[in-house]
């Protein structure tokens, strides 16, 4: 009898017209169950071997434990990396040569979804080659309604020169929620608040007069009313005050428009309005409680030089002495993903752990903000090719690189603890 997860996988494979794999019942055992519970007592837990086996077992016996999942899966570009990057099918079928890669990813995504809490999110790095096919999988596994967004990340100033007509500068970060209960933490507000009143520091944040669609007086007649303002101190009132000037929501072309709020709301929140000397009414954006970090919406274009591939490569060389891992993600990039997408007590899952950058990012963030994040990693025990630099540097398996990164973290932070299961 198929498990619930295997049944989901099988049904999706049939619906998508992908090759149907043979699945055996996933019963597990008490010893494995105890092992899978061990992540609660350690900073990082690394599972070495086939990530699908571990994902299905955890999803079956310890579901809904993960707050955020980040993965950097094989991009399937056919590159000569230390892991398999050549999963291509015959060109026949709906998805052509991409079917094998989709078959590889589908069961892992289904299992990962089961491991996420209802408030959880998953973030996936991908480039143009499989982006469209990953989006199809994610829409089916997580649901179109749970698509949060697609971030474009600049990974190179001059671009990769492998294509004939284009030098690609970017790749993507695809973000999905487990359900509508998920809320991203947001990025740190770096705005300069250059004004202050009795309510705190603020900045002028936009016109109080409505612009664009549904902005006319005829659209919302009850939002067309006079506002009184003092041109000297910028204060605003809904009630007339002697000596103050009057302003209606009429634009520079004489078109009658409307305010953002109704008259009663504006009366209650007039302290949030500011008038220029010329009578332009703005909404104040306050810095908020200084003891509570203010967060804003995540922008969808990331172009920091800290996110360049070259940065990640240099970090690997500095840590391990040579470029033992291909196209690693920079530490600051992973730190930002975790920081903006999850709280500081989150459980983070990365089942393509690679060089262990996610573990390093979690450890660094905990040190910076006093967080209690925990990290669950998975990496293959496949042998490293004989001609690869990692092999020449003494590493036998891909997971050996991940393990070494954890030891190096512990060397710098003796209180850092990790467990490895294989």
Commentary on this structure:
It is a single chain. A hairpin with a 6-residue loop joins strand 9 (227-229) and strand 10. It contains eleven helices and 18 strands. The chain is elongated. The protein is of the alpha/beta class and 422 residues long. The chain starts with a helix and ends with a strand. The model has no long low-confidence stretch (mean pLDDT 89). Helix 1 (4-16) runs antiparallel to helix 4 (99-115) and helix 8 packs across helix 9 (357-369). It has a nine-stranded mixed beta sheet with strand order 15-4-5-3-2-16-17-1-18, sandwiched between helices. The protein has a four-stranded antiparallel beta sheet with strand order 7-8-13-12, with no helix packed on it. It has a three-stranded antiparallel beta sheet with strand order 10-9-11, with no helix packed on it. It is 30% helix and 20% strand. The longest helix is centred in the first third of the chain and has 17 residues, at 99-115. The chain has helices at residues 4-16, 30-37, 51-61, 99-115, 128-143, 263-268, 309-320, 331-341, 357-369, 389-392, 398-412, and strands at residues 44-48, 66-71, 116-126, 147-154, 170-177, 187-188, 195-197, 200-207, 227-229, 236-237, 245-247, 273-275, 281-286, 295-296, 301-302, 347-350, 374-379, 418-421.
């Amino acid at each position: 009898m198929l498990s619930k997860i295997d049944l989901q996988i099988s049904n999706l494979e049939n619906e998508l017209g992908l090759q149907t794999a043979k699945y055996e019942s996933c019963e597990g055992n008490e010893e494995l169950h105890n092992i899978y519970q061990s992540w609660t007592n350690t900073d990082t837990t690394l599972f070495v071997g086939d990530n699908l086996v571990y994902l299905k077992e955890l999803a079956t016996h310890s579901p809904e434990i993960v707050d955020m999942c980040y993965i950097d899966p094989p991009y399937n570009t056919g590159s000569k990396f230390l892991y398999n990057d050549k999963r291509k099918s015959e060109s026949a079928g709906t998805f052509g040569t991409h079917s094998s890669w989709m078959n590889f990813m589908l069961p892992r995504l289904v299992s990962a979804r089961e491991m996420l809490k209802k408030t959880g999110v998953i973030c996936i790095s991908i480039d143009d080659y499989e982006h469209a096919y990953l989006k199809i999988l994610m829409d089916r596994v997580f649901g179109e309604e749970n698509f949060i967004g697609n971030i474009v990340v600049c990974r190179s100033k001059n671009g990769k020169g492998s294509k004939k007509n284009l030098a690609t500068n970017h790749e993507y970060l695809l973000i999905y929620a487990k359900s509508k209960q998920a809320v991203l933490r947001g990025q740190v507000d770096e705005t300069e608040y250059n004004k202050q009143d009795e309510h705190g520091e603020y900045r002028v944040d936009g016109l109080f007069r409505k612009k664009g669609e549904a902005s006319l007086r005829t659209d919302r007649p009850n939002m067309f009313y006079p506002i009184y303002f003092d041109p000297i101190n910028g204060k605003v009132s809904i009630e007339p005050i002697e000596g103050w000037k009057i302003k209606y929501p009429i634009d520079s072309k004489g078109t009658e428009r409307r305010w953002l709020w109704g008259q009663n709301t504006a009366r209650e929140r007039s302290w949030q309005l500011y008038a220029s000397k010329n009578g332009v009414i703005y909404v104040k954006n306050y810095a908020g409680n200084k003891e509570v970090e203010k967060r804003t919406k995540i922008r969808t274009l990331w172009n920091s030089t800290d996110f360049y591939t070259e940065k990640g490569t240099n970090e690997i060389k500095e840590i391990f002495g040579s470029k033992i891992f291909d196209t690693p993600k920079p530490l600051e990039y992973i730190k930002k993903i975790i920081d903006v997408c999850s709280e500081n007590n989150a459980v983070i899952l990365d089942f393509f752990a690679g060089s262990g950058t996610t573990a390093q990012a979690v450890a660094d963030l905990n040190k910076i903000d006093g967080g209690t994040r925990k990290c669950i990693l998975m990496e293959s025990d496949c042998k490293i090719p004989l001609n690869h630099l990692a092999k020449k540097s003494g590493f036998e398996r891909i997971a050996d690189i991940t393990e070494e990164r954890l030891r190096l973290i512990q060397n710098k932070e003796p209180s850092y603890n990790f467990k490895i299961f294989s």
